[in-house]
Amino acid sequence: MLEETVPEIFKPFEMTTELPGTADPEQALEMDEFQRYDEAAEQGTEAYSISQGEYTESGLYVPGHVEEINPEVAEFDPEMRELSCELDTWIEQKEPMSCAVASQTMAINQLEHGAYSEQELIDLARENGWYTSNGTLPRDVGKIAESMGAEVERRRGVEPSELTLANDPTVKVLANIDSTLLHFPESDKRCKPDHCVQVLRVENTTQGEFVILNDPGHEGGRGAVYPMEVFAKAYRGDITTIRKEREV
Length: 248
Description:
By secondary structure, the protein is an alpha+beta fold. It has helices at residues 11-18, 25-42, 71-76, 78-88, 99-112, 118-128, 143-147, 179-183, 228-233; strands spanning 48-50, 54-55, 61-62, 64-69, 151-155, 172-177, 195-205, 208-214, 224-227, 235-243.
């Protein structure tokens, strides 16, 4: 009988199995992390849970909300990790017309891992004429972030389907919307944006497409979830994107 030999390519594997404990500890840790990630994926672990939105008898649409981000998924998924951060930085606007300042406060704190208060940025905006008792003009949305070194772009005519750019963890998207139509989407009023919100994420699911917002305009605005067809009625295509300034 011929002597059985182990092909050269399999010898390192043979040594590892025969001599447990000799593998590189860092490599073993990485393998364990990947195994946990694969197990979570195989179990169909949901990234987050949301409550359902609904209409009231008066025609008011009450949005659903992101209830919880799965920490196991967020550990490996940068988009879910950033969404968790965005939810944690939500604030309710301090003044009736300060929605654009509040939205920029959230975006700046997310990008810089900062702790700026809205009042600090209200004061800065007032000093520079970007915020008055009438609010912030569309052309001035983002100027606080620009003054702090961020890369800002104001865009018009952006289709709702293009808002998936908010899913990029490095981009913060502020959208001008009609606050009445957002809450009363069946109203026949003409869309006239008067409010600023942060778009966190757009998702396509078997139940349809929906958008997740940080809305500083009311106490239930953190991680508010709207069907895209509801949001689209309040949206006219005006957005401001904010990114960290590119390093030279």
